[in-house]
Fold these 2 entries.
Entry 1:
Amino acid sequence: MSNVTLTIDGQTVSVPAGTTILQAAQSIGAEIPAICYHEACTPNALCRNCVVEVEGARVLVASCVAQVAANMVVYTRSPRVERSRRTILEMLASAVDLSEAPDIQRMMQEYSADAQRFPQAERREIPLIDDNPMYVRDYSKCILCWRCVQVCADDAQFTFAINFSGRGYETTIGTFFGKPMPATTCVFCGQCVGVCPTGALKPKSEWLLEQGLSIDQVFAATRQERTGAEKRTRTWRRA
Amino acid sequence: MIEADRVVATICPYCGVGCNLQLHLKNDYIYKVTAPFESVVNHGNLCVKGRFGYDFIYHPRRVTTPLIRKTPQQPGSRTQAFDLDEWRVVSWDEALDYTADRLVEIYHRDGADAMAVYLCAKATNEDNYLLQKLFRALFRTNNVDHCTRLCHAGSVVALQQAIGSSAMSNTAAEVIQNDVFIVTGSNTTENHPIIALQMKAAVEKHGAKMIVVDPRRLELVDFAELWLPLKPGTNVPLFTAMAHVIIEEGLVNEKFVAERTEGYAEFVRSVEEFTPEYAEAVCGVDRELIRRAARLYATAERAAIYWGMGISQLSHGTASALSLIHLAFLTGHIGREGTGLNPLRGQNNVQGASDMGAMPFHYPGYMRVDNPENAAKWERAWNVEPGGLNRKLGLTTTEILSHAHPGGVRALYIMGENPMMSEPNLNLTRHHMQQLEFIAAQDLFINESGAFADVFLPAVSWAEKDGTFTNTDRRVQRVRQALPPRGQARPDWQIIRDLAQRIEARLGRSQSAGWQYTHPSEILAEVGRVAPEYAGVTYERLEQQGLQTPVWDARHPGTPYLFSEGFPRGRGKFHPLEFVPAVELPDDEYPFILTTGRVLEHWHGGTLTRHSHLDDLFPEAQAQINPVDAEMLGIRDGLPVRVASRRGQIVLRAAVSEKTSAGVVFIPFHFAEAAANLLTIDALDPQAKIPEFKACAVQVFPAREEELAKPEIRMERGRY
């Protein structure tokens, strides 16, 4: 495959055609901050935090999906880029609980983002869903990066148990018809938990430990002991 | 948000894929498990067991003190003791002295043939090496086997006969380089979940075509180009008919056959009768499907075969595997990247345990015990007088129990196995267990087999010890201790070392076989000094990444795929085959074929997973029945059924679905309260001695709710 030469932040770079701007920048050590992007997932340019300025382009370009072109001139930290990233982070912080998203918090510091910039914003407060023995879903922490949906689909598992549901502000990640997880095609591989960047998805044992339970209590809570005398019907209710 | 005290890199203890793990610990509790995305094995992916299935470590019923039975057990009338009240808590010294006394007493009285041991494909290479060394060097017996006998023995024997080696020839990740691949007798989605992901990606993203040959409509069928739903136990006619088509249509790789194989002319004559029409009649698969599958496989640039227990767990398991090997020989689809023959090994360390000589026919490194040169090598390594090691082939797993009678096997040491769940025809197994004079169990829980023991030695889980596992693609990987042993439990290698020292002292041997180990790395180094495949495998090298055996010396990089130059036996050997049907065929009285297997959420006899919240996700046994049969029997989904064979019967709920073909009932064997192996037949493959788990005749009737062992449990799940 032929190489393409371009300029990133004043440096000349030569990379194979088809490389994304993000990868090209990484190759010269220019770190572009990205939230929804994950090396194991197909990039979708959803969070827009990886935008860069390309000379001649009308709008900022999402570097996770945009491929390099010959003689492209890219700025990864121009004032326009910085303002855009800062605003995105401030809007995220206005509505979503980012307390367990250390990477995003670091970015907010780096870009001097003000978490209180939009005090009137309505916060996304969604009850935690505890509908299975393996993991909990706390969508108050969800930034809709889509990584979980992708690994559940054809980026890893080919199980297709979850997807976006709702529109606009009401958008959440959910199961089809809002079924409890055990009633879906979910195989509880936890690929989704593995790529969640904000702690919206976490193992139930971790969540219970956070609630202050001892290890023995966690054990008892995650596993209903079955004895001969105990009567129990296994039905899963929506939380 | 919890800050981990430490994150420990290790290897998953469940299946043979060997996924890399990171255990996140807080106060010695594994609260989270992640997988490194840069891992060549699993690329950040895990399955439900690998990610969530470790709470058994902390289970209150786990035994963490040595125990001795209160009531002395007599051969012929042994009983099971699940309740701790029936056991006396003792010190390690008392437990080990007692075990050594009893074993030595029986050895002195009845000799080497009275001694037997089950090793463990869950335990590390080091644990297995040490225990077979104990029984071979001290008790001079080759009655050493493990559960490979129950899973891939047919494949191992076939590969040894035809090729001279018995492992996957490829790296699992090579599946994306296949143009065509056959998956047969393997529900890869549930039993090797991470390899199944790579298979699906191969089809969906890399343009490969998959052929599924299986009596069940597995999830993989959704991704397959062709599905050949054969009747259980008819592999030989089906694959030999494919060979027939390949020869008839001139699709043979003549150059490969001429240069790399032998016995071709005779083989060609033997396949004449195996026409697709004949196969259709026997296997129930459309002749055109057989032809298309043969053409697709033979004309591919790069093709491979992946198989599981559906091939090997038959009374003709060896012949089944040979019928697959022939396809690779005819087409030359072996010895190049993206081509090959791949038995998917079940347990995390079944490859390693086999490599370590946990078999009655081989020392570590597959050196035959009846070859005097091999024996001499190990006599030198273990300071045994020349001629001291037993040259006689030992008994296999199933034979050990069937020889449990006066004059036969008297003492059985069980490390981590559960024959009372995993052997065929459990009523007979129970009878055999009762006949033993002494049983020692080394495990985490008192399972159905440990309950028969005289002494219980509490071992640790994989997270509480150091060692190595060798996965299905021959990759030796480092298992690291993440937390201290619970209670007084001890690492297996330490238990065996301390026991061996006591036994050796009692036997009064003039020279010690060497039991002064302070770390498992010293044990692996000892293996490498004699077994050439492990010569270059050292703990230092394993720190960074696993090594694929054979690793011939300290600088050898390992071997991603085998047989590029030649086969270990020289030329690949064709073996003309005959079709031998399953021993017990359906008839008017027992009209259904029972086939057994596993489900995603559980592991084998259930010692671990049924002590985990995995059991909450999949709490009950189910009999999968095709809707056509269900209609005929008046059975609806979720209703109880009685399934009976000539050997036993169980009651469990029916799962009516097209996942199984008409005439075939599928039952997983994890559930003690409805143990599928009460029904299975103890017929063995004559060469490999593997039982016929995959086909026996049963009858099915509606049953009453109250006949269920646990009628209060009713699982509702949406997964396929």
Entry 2:
Amino acid sequence: MAKRALRADERDNVAVVLEDVERGEWVEVDGFGRLTAAESIPFSHKISLASIRKGQPVTRYGECIGVASKDIREGEWVHTHNLEVPGHLLGS
Amino acid sequence: MRGFHGFRRPDGRVGVRNWVAVLPTVACANGVAEAITREVPGTVPLLHGHGCGRGMPDVGIHFRTLVGILKNPNVAAAVVVGLGCEVIKAEALAEQVRACGKPVAWLEIQGEGGSRKSTERGIALARDFVESAKRLQREEVPLSELVLGLECGGSDAFSGVTANPAVGLLSDYVVENGGTVILTEATEMIGTAHILAKRACSQEVACRVEEVIRRAERNVKDLLGPLASMVIAPGNMDGGMSSIVEKSLGCIKKGGSTPIVEVVEYGQPPSRRGLVIMEGPGYDGESMAGLAASGCQAVVFTTGRGNPIGFPTVPVIKVASNPRMYRQMEDDMDVNAGAVLEGAKLEEVAEELKRVLHQTLDGRPTRAEENRQGGILCLYSTVPSF
């Protein structure tokens, strides 16, 4: 059975998994569809819903929460190891 | 529309608790303040580590915050216990509080001749105040008398899709019924100035919103430099939060969707009803002290990692963002917004929040009150002590 993930806004390219997900497991994202987890993702962490090139925005709640600090593939775990916050988001 | 049952104070404000507070003006008076409250049921000690060894502007911030906490309508009367040689003086503090018509007494340990004599006198004063407070009756008042504080602590990546938007619906309910809601934690608004400024009721308020958020941004940059974007706690990151902006976007959902009518300083009471932003830190204890000083009779506190903290004089309603933590820490949680992840609708959680809010205002203890999680006062400071 597929694990569930929650997308906060339809513009988002990440969703939050509702339980621990193992590599290769199906993940069902409400309002988006199914994808395969490319790696293990812990409960309450984010899964990428699309390929995000280095420097491209990571979007949650329909807003930019940071940019990819390296290329991210669909189904990968998105966190501080591959997301950074450019200065302009902090008002500079 | 339902109102709530509270204690009308001489200044017209309405409390939902009826505490006789015993406040030390300085850390050195904590022991006496605590000894007094041990002997007198109905009193609460407001222990803290401040009151001396600081210059401006912190003396001013601490003074007005302590005054505000005693003026809060949940406090029926207060005994102020000074040492005698400290910067924040018991008499001056008591005079400020007395201006709102509330019964206040003060004493100083050095003037009374030591701890035991001060404790005995404090006990006598506190007993008289408790006797008077017991005679006060709750009366029904409209929801427009409510000032509700919003807080989040130990957030996780679910906070912004479960607990915070459910609290947002509660905020809309309070404001639509004429009440006031205070959204604070300016550090957790970083990266959202463009969103919040658009929600201001006037250009002037929009400028104030931007000013407060820009200042928070500058402060974290000055303090943390290149790590500024990571100004979130380790637990937030373990909970799946990857940046301060992600945390902020979830945090501001607590404020709901009504216009921002005013921006106030830390611990300053609002002058308008509606959704208000208070400048202040993201550190929960300091933030809630500011909310209490600004007159909040209750606080709604969302948490993902599980934070049990309350406030000595203000009921704090704990809202869990995910079902896993709710089940693990059920004794500390009042509402399970994590039910949204298991199929419940946000509106259903909001209804539960309204029910719990009304019960709390009418006197039912929150989990934090049952667990005596009032803790000590933490006051926002801008410079080190000397």
